[in-house]
Design goal:
The protein is mostly helical. It is built from 23 helices and 2 strands. It is globular, with a radius of gyration of 27 Å.
Length: 454
């Protein structure tokens, strides 16, 4: 085809190393042939193919199918690691409580919901009033998904606000099959499955964008997510849905991805940042590259992903007489004011009886603030939707007050998006949805047949 001749063997050329499927691993191998046998004008398609060829994958020079299989195995290992780490943390707690998962709900025996829990499960394990946590609210939502039984939903404080993010309670109640006694186990299994799904999806996203699939371990190493599993809160499910939605979006399944984003928004309002970040990214692209096709459609689909949450909010406004976000005012304020106040409170605590909380809060907030500052500086390049999401998160987190910032358990859970997004922001991920930029494992190679005469 290029006048090489039938007697010429590709394997004899310097650096020429086609694999068993007849593919060259890099541009240099094929270019060596061009030095020995210059192409004719009629070979322009082959020249174009060579220009599209890229350098070998850093993962090795194995067959493409083997490399893809390896990345899948790594994704599964990341999922298993996330389940193992968070599961071990939960099992340590359960094991010292007679193997009763109800202890993870963190319900006090003196709160109103305890009467319902005790009647549903006589072995239900209660905690002291000071150990109460948000798992109680999702337990109540699972029992009364649409707030139609006032004997249930009125037993939790600020129920108008709690019902603003019902997704985790809905899913847990669904898997409990209507049996309140199974509910703690269902909540735990949903949380563990979410950790695995989130780690798997993050690994696949990283691999797709040309980075190590071991990035999936970010989920297993996130203290806020692991802590959420031990207190049966919604963050693992929200992260899983957001990550799976991003993976679907990268692969061009826009409508399905939008539906998954809608579920993430119903799990926790914070995850609106994901479709919002993608929406703004598409808007920026439309300004920079007006010829990019499909942007209006994608923006409409992203906007539609927030409609279910808006409709749910409207339902609660009619039912309760107030929007959920307005039922607990004071969580947000002027930027950085809440941070300044929290540092002041933490310093006073460090000098008194709560010195350990105060001193740790100072350290944790300093590190988190520094990480956010570095991330903001890097994100201003706007190289990917991750940068836009990080900037939106930074603006939101800068306005939170001491209620979220004072106690370390609330910081690692409320600001868990920072350590999840920061690596992608610092690395400067090059965002190219499928099929524009397939994973490194499937980068194009040059076929041997294109260099041999028929």
């Amino acid at each position: 085809m290029l006048g090489i001749g039938s007697s010429y063997e590709l394997g004899s050329a310097p650096n020429a190393s086609p694999n068993q499927s007849g593919l060259f691993y890099n541009f240099a191998d094929a270019a060596e042939l061009f030095k020995l046998h210059p192409p004719r004008i009629t070979d322009q398609p082959i020249i174009a193919a060579l220009h599209r060829a890229r350098s070998p994958s850093p993962r090795g020079t194995g067959d493409t199918a083997l490399v893809v299989a390896k990345s899948w195995r790594i994704a599964l290992l990341c999922a298993a690691g996330a389940v193992a780490v968070s599961g071990a943390a939960a099992l340590f707690t359960i094991g010292f409580a007679g193997w009763e998962p109800s202890i993870l709900v963190r319900m006090s025996k003196i709160e109103p919901m305890s009467e319902i829990a005790r009647s549903a499960d006589r072995d239900f394990v209660f905690v002291s009033s000071g150990s109460h946590f948000d798992g109680v609210y999702f337990y109540a939502i699972a029992l009364d998904p649409f707030a139609r039984n006032d004997d249930v939903y009125t037993r939790i404080d600020l129920y108008q606000y709690r019902y603003g993010h019902p997704g985790y309670g809905w899913v847990s109640g669904l898997f409990a099959l209507g049996d309140p006694a199974r509910l703690p186990w269902s909540m735990l299994l949903v949380a563990l499955a979410s950790m695995g799904a989130g780690a798997w999806a993050v690994s696949r996203i990283a691999d797709h964008l040309g980075h190590s699939p071991w990035w999936g371990l970010l989920v297993a190493a996130n203290p806020g997510l692991v802590f959420s599993v031990t207190v049966l809160c919604s963050e693992p499910l929200g992260v899983a849905l957001a990550a799976v939605g991003l993976l679907l979006w990268l692969r061009g399944s826009f409508a399905v991805a939008a539906a998954v984003f809608a579920g993430a928004c119903l799990v926790k309002e914070l995850f609106i940042l994901v479709p919002a970040g993608l929406f703004l990214w598409e808007a920026i692209r439309s300004v920079q590259h007006r010829a990019v096709p499909g942007i209006p459609f994608r923006m409409v689909v992203l906007a539609a992903s927030t409609v279910p949450l808006a409709l749910w909010y409207l339902y609660l406004r009619v039912h309760f007489g107030v929007f959920p976000a307005l039922a607990e005012p004071g969580n947000l304020g002027m930027p950085l004011v809440g941070w300044f106040e929290t540092f002041g409170i933490a310093v006073r605590m460090s000098r008194g009886g709560a010195s350990q909380i105060g001193t740790f809060t100072i350290t944790l907030l300093t590190i988190t603030g520094a990480a956010m500052l570095v991330g903001v500086v890097r994100a201003l390049r706007i190289k990917s939707p991750f940068d836009v999401m990080f900037l939106l998160s930074a603006v939101l987190f800068a306005m939170v007050n001491w209620k979220i910032l004072l106690f370390p358990k609330d910081v690692i859970r409320g600001l868990m998006m920072v350590p999840l997004l920061l690596p992608a922001v610092i690395a400067g991920v090059d965002w190219k949805p499928w099929p524009d930029a397939p994973a490194r494992a499937s980068r194009p190679m040059v076929r041997r047949e294109e260099y041999e005469r028929p």
